[in-house]
Design goal:
The complex is a heterotrimer of chains A (99), B (544) and C (494). Chain A has 99 residues and is α+β, with helices and mostly antiparallel strands. Chain A has helices at 5-14, 21-38, 74-79; strands at residues 63-64, 84-85, 88-92. Chain A starts with a helix and ends in a 7-residue tail after the last strand. By secondary structure, chain C is an alpha+beta fold. Chain C has 3 domains: 3-305, no CATH class; 325-426, no CATH class; 435-493, Arc Repressor Mutant, subunit A, CATH 1.10.10.410. The chains are: A alpha+beta (99), B alpha/beta (544), C alpha+beta (494). Chains in contact: A-B, A-C, B-C. At the A-B interface, helix 1, helix 2, helix 3 and strand 3 of A face helix 10, helix 11, helix 12, helix 13 and helix 14 of B.
């Protein structure tokens, strides 16, 4: 399918990417071409009898015991943060409500 | 971390090693040696780990384009790199490597039992975390990020006393087939410095091919070890999915990513894979089955084995030199006593389209965490939402943005079934094709890449042309099967008559039969006698 | 407060509830970090729960087992095979900008709860609320909004603490079967009681280990479902009832005026007693769910499910039925089971106490004192054996009702270190029922109060109360009032 510039902007919003107008204009035909190529998967007859594969191995019930294990110190975890305050990660004003 | 105590001379009872070629630290023989041969000399005390590390550091300082200064050497800025700089490394952990080497020498002198590759240097792809140096993933987003923990692969290498020389360049977040998508400038192919080394693990490939390390770790999602191995004349393997832990491997596409070895010989690669494979309780997708012994039957030969030629992975789209080398390879297998059988992977032609839906879908989610809150780049803005969006816009390069966009779209409401779900079903069919093919063949073969190394900048404008590099490698990635590329010879570059460049042969084996793949590769390698040291007018400088 | 009383004639209220329960596992859902409440910010964290690049989740076995146990307690079916999905959305309290949750195949499907709703004073009706699903997910980090209001709105920046991020969370989604605020409240209380009975969470709404969102809509009887609003910030059972009632009335007023209901999320303001618009859902949020490739399937074979089922304790509904059969009123049974005093009552009954009498004391005096002191029954140290002993002392006349209350208070004051018998002895709180001793005191009082005695003999029978008071005073309250009365009459009237 061909992606319109409006659709590109919608996807960019979902992906939280601030794209310039030039980027949007360049991406619309590029993404359309890639999608058109990828859409070849639609030629394959794969009905309900074909389970989708998520993993090459059908592993199940990989779990750990409910036991504590040392993590990182606060200094280690905050060391990489762009901004901190009061031992927490600081972010500017959040506009949208959760979820 | 390596022992932080200052380096002291090895206290070996044998005299300091001198080498046939002259014995200097920059000795060509040390950097040309295979890992297994180096390990043997180290064991015998003919050379110290420190001398081996120094020889490699000297060569890196001379040829790679680094600022050889301070405890961690940084690569030169992209605009300062010259056309003769290989640029395999983004960071060289010189002090830590020397300290680790000294520690190995000390412990060896004390009679401690060390691992089979103890003291041998290695280059680590910059997508695996290691304390004490940045892990950038080739991205501006993580330019200054020093991970607070070690990847399982990193830990296993250190436990085995393999000495990490540094972190290697790569396509940003492992997305690419030429290493031109690195935010820090492209890596050059040691066989021809005007050409690409392949990707995304191009830095690791160039390090080994350029004699800047005897071994390297790469990661392979759709061919990111095998294709660069093919383009640089190396052995590179993608192990069976789940046999090498992904803990600490910064995810591109979780269901496909797998770390694996680069080496100049099959045995070196097998030795390295043997060190890093095995169950890890920190990775839920790590397989619990016994992983095969890769070395026990390495030299058994291939007499009587059935080699399956995949109908769908040859013919149109493959350069004539690639096709001819492949034909010659089949004849070689027959001479070695194997039987050639024709097999079909009917859904393989849909592998690449499926891959370019599945991998971006997973990537769109995996890369969501880079938002300017916890680590990495932040571009300031008045609100958190704008800060996230501006940070991601500035931190990600064009190919990463493209794939995030494709993946976000493929997972979005109304498109999921036709794109992600359908691609995941195609994946099932491809896995079934492999299982069926292995009923009639012991291993499958194909060319690794449809082309030899291409010129820098020649494919960057057309994403799909670049994606087609993965056409032969992606099917095994989707099915999870082990696959390996090894040199099959040299072929003429179509755009440069007279220039001979390496050609790779891909071997694919049943799940958990990585041993079989190595056994076939070893027999082929012994018969071919390929010299992995680069030659040619624009090849990297090598002391001969 | 029933539907009939809160909505005008002809209107019907439709409510569905989404309840989140934080499990009290030792460690988080995907990593070995502690789940302790109240640790210093960003100290219960690791590479996994802060979303460090390259880190990977591994599921907590206990969390899956707890979820299965609760699902069975809610009469649900367990899917033989289920998966974890990623719910993708950007928010600073999500370390990975996706939440690991479940989507098309949750662990638990099709359960129900039978709840007791008081329809008239002391009269209860059982109502069934369907449960669509229970699924496993992970909690988010805690955000501190810095600015004037302390709330998100009006804050100028937010500070994130990832200690809570990754704590195992269960989401329990009811069908929209609820038709009045009381049923919603009863459902929430019942769910809380079951969660505590199976021991998977302390389910404290005030600490956020149990959280409730309500989907509320109204319609005229017989019409299709109306547009619903989701109400958040319901921090108690009481808030839930008030918020539903307010919201239902708000919607009816709008609809009667011909104004359409906007689908939106609303915030309950406990102080003002109103719901307010939080955000309007312009479009359905596109979470781009897909199976988490870092995790594998959860397989629950039937025999494994039965093993877990065998571990189920007695559930509140069964306990209530048992208590009513033992002589408690339905209201008492609801209070005992809902109030967390079942174990103590059962112990008291086992030690010989009369069920109804012991229940009365537990739901009356004991509850009153605990409430006044702000402690739990467990913290009080009061046991079933204490209770039985106390009832024994009352029954044999050693203690009056009033003295029993005093003794009980002392037992609780001592946090159960000394039993009722010992307390009564050491504090001298024994009823004077020895006839000889009491008769002597009575005769003295009669002799000292000639005027009052004359009045009584003259027919003013009520005046005897004053003499009883005198006797009580003389015995420091330890006289048996009934016996005192009898003796006074005997002495006065000869």
């Amino acid at each position: 399918m061909a992606l319109s510039e409006a659709e590109v902007r919608h996807v960019a919003r979902l992906a939280r990417l601030a794209l310039t107008d030039d980027e949007v204009a360049a991406l619309a035909p590029q993404l359309s071409k890639i999608l058109e190529y990828a859409e070849q998967v639609g030629e394959v007859a794969a009905g309900d009898d074909v389970e989708p594969t998520v993993h090459p191995f059908a592993l199940a019930n990989v779990v750990r015991a409910d036991e504590r294990r040392d993590g990182l110190t606060r200094d280690e975890v905050l060391a990489g943060a762009p901004a901190t305050e009061a031992d927490r990660f600081a972010v500017p004003r959040i506009v949208a409500e959760e979820g | 971390m390596a022992d932080p105590t200052p380096p002291t001379p090895p206290t070996s009872t044998t005299p300091p090693a001198t080498d046939a070629a002259g014995g200097s630290a920059a000795d060509g023989a040390l950097t040309r040696s295979t890992a297994v041969a180096l390990a043997a000399r180290l064991r015998r005390g003919e050379v110290s780990a420190r001398e081996v590390v120094d020889a490699h550091l000297d060569r890196i300082a001379a040829l790679d384009g680094v600022v050889a200064d301070g405890p961690v050497w940084a690569a030169k800025a992209a605009e300062e790199l010259t056309a003769d700089d290989v640029h395999a490394y983004l960071a060289v952990t010189a002090d830590a490597a020397r300290a680790h080497a000294d520690d190995v020498d000390r412990r060896r002198a004390a009679g401690e039992e060390l691992g089979p590759l103890a003291g041998v240097p290695l280059a680590l792809k910059d997508v695996l975390t290691m304390r004490g140096a940045p892990t950038t993933c080739g991205s501006r987003m993580l330019e200054d990020w020093v991970p607070p923990y070690d990847a399982t692969v990193t830990r296993r290498l250190r436990d085995a006393d393999v000495v990490v020389l540094g972190k290697t360049n790569m396509d940003e977040y492992a997305m690419g087939s030429s290493t031109e998508n690195s935010a820090y400038g492209p890596t050059r192919n040691p066989w021809d410095l005007d050409r690409v080394p392949g990707g995304s693990s191009g830095g690791s490939a160039a390090a080994v091919a350029g004699l800047l390390a005897p071994l390297a770790i790469g990661t392979d999602t759709g061919g990111s070890i095998r294709q660069p191995a093919a383009l640089t004349g190396l052995v590179g393997a993608k192990p069976t999915y789940g046999t090498v832990s992904r803990y600490g491997l910064v995810a591109f596409a979780s269901s496909l990513d797998q770390a694996g070895p680069f080496a100049r010989t099959v045995e070196d690669a097998a030795q390295l894979q043997a060190l890093i494979q095995g169950h890890d309780p920190r990775d839920s997708t790590s397989v619990r089955e016994e992983v095969p012994d890769l070395l026990a039957h390495l030299r058994d030969g291939i007499d009587g084995l059935r080699i399956g030629v995949v109908t769908e992975l040859q013919g149109e789209g493959y350069e004539p030199g690639i096709a001819a080398t492949f034909e010659a390879s089949l004849e070689r297998f027959e001479r070695l006593g194997a039987t050639i059988v024709e097999v079909s992977l009917p859904h393989a032609p849909y592998g690449l389209p499926a891959y370019y839906l599945i991998a971006p879908s997973e990537a769109s989610s995996n890369l969501a965490r880079f938002d300017g809150v916890r680590y990495g780049l932040r571009v300031d803005a008045p609100t958190a939402e704008e800060m996230n969006a501006a940070t991601r816009a500035a931190g990600f390069g064009p190919e990463v943005k493209r794939r995030i966009m494709i993946g976000t779209h493929a997972l979005s409401s109304g498109y999921y079934d036709a794109y992600y779900l359908q691609a995941s079903k195609v994946r099932t069919l491809i896995a079934r094709d492999f299982a069926a093919a292995f009923e009639t063949a012991d291993v499958l073969v194909s060319p690794t890449s449809p082309s030899v190394s291409f010129g820098l900048g020649t494919k960057t404008a057309d994403p799909i042309a670049m994606y087609l590099n993965d056409v032969a490698t992606v099917p095994a990635s989707l099915a999870g099967n082990p696959a390996l590329s090894l040199p099959a010879g040299l072929a003429e570059a179509p755009d440069a008559p007279g220039t001979q460049l390496p050609v790779g042969l891909q071997l694919m084996a049943p799940l958990l039969r990585d041993d079989l793949m190595y056994r076939v590769a070893w027999a082929f390698e012994q018969d071919l006698g390929f010299d992995p040291v680069p030659t040619g007018p624009r090849a990297v400088e090598v002391a001969r | 407060m029933t539907t009939a009383s809160i909505l005008p004639e002809g209107w019907e209220l439709i409510v569905g509830l989404e309840v989140h329960v934080e499990l009290t596992t030792t460690t988080k859902m995907w990593c070995g970090c502690s789940t302790d409440f109240g640790a210093a910010p960003n100290t219960n964290v690791c590479a996994v729960c802060t979303g460090q690049p390259g880190s990977l989740p591994v599921a907590n076995a206990r969390a899956i087992e707890d979820a299965t146990l609760l699902g069975l307690a809610l009469n649900g079916g367990i899917h033989g095979r289920c998966w974890f999905h990623r719910k993708n959305y950007f928010y600073p309290d999500l370390a990975k900008n996706y939440q690991i949750s479940q989507y098309d195949v949750p662990l638990v499907h099709d359960g129900h709860l039978d709840v007791e709703v008081e329809v008239a004073d002391g009269a209860f009706e059982t109502r069934r609320v369907g449960i669509e699903r229970l699924h496993m997910e992970e909690d988010t980090a805690r955000s501190l909004h810095v600015g004037d209001t302390g709330r998100l709105h009006g804050a100028d920046r937010s500070l994130i603490d990832y200690n809570r991020c990754g704590i195992p969370l269960l989401e329990i989604v009811s069908h929209p079967d609820i038709r009045d605020p009381e049923t919603a409240q009863a459902y929430l209380r019942e769910l809380q009681a079951i969660v505590r009975a199976v021991g998977v969470s302390d389910a404290r709404m005030e600490e956020g280990s149990m959280r409730c969102d309500a989907n509320v809509s109204v319609r005229r009887f017989g019409e299709p479902l109306g547009t619903r609003c989701e109400i958040k910030n319901l921090n108690s059972v009481r808030s839930l009832g008030r918020a539903i009632a307010y919201e239902a009335q708000r919607q009816v007023v709008l609809l009667e005026d011909g104004v359409a209901i906007r689908q939106e999320t609303r915030h309950w303001d406990e102080g003002k007693g109103v719901t307010e618009t939080l955000r309007v859902k312009e479009t359905v949020t596109d979470y781009r769910y897909f199976p988490d490739p870092d995790l594998v399937a959860v397989v629950s074979p039937a025999e494994r499910v039965e093993e877990v089922r065998a571990r189920l304790p007695e559930l509140p509904a069964a306990a209530r039925a048992r208590l009513v059969a033992a002589g408690l009123s339905p209201a008492q049974a609801v209070t005992v089971v809902g109030g967390g005093s079942l174990t103590v009552l059962d112990d008291a009954i086992a030690a010989g106490a009369d069920p109804s009498t012991a229940a009365n004391r537990l739901t009356g005096e004991v509850a009153g004192q605990l409430g006044a002191e702000g402690i739990t029954l467990e913290e009080s140290g009061l046991t079933g054996a204490h209770l039985a002993e106390l009832e024994g002392l009352v029954a044999d006349g050693t203690l009056s009702t009033k003295l029993a209350k005093q003794v009980l208070a002392s037992v609780i004051d001592g946090r159960g270190a000394h039993g009722p018998k010992q307390v009564a002895e050491t504090e001298g709180l024994q009823q004077v029922s020895d006839e000889g001793e009491l008769r002597a005191i009575v005769e003295q009082v009669v002799a000292d109060n000639a005027g009052t005695v004359a009045a009584i003999r003259g027919g003013n029978d009520k005046a005897i109360g004053a003499l009883v008071g005198q006797v009580m005073k003389a015995t420091r309250g330890q006289a048996d009032p009934r016996k005192t009365n009898e003796l006074l009459r005997a002495v006065i009237h000869g």
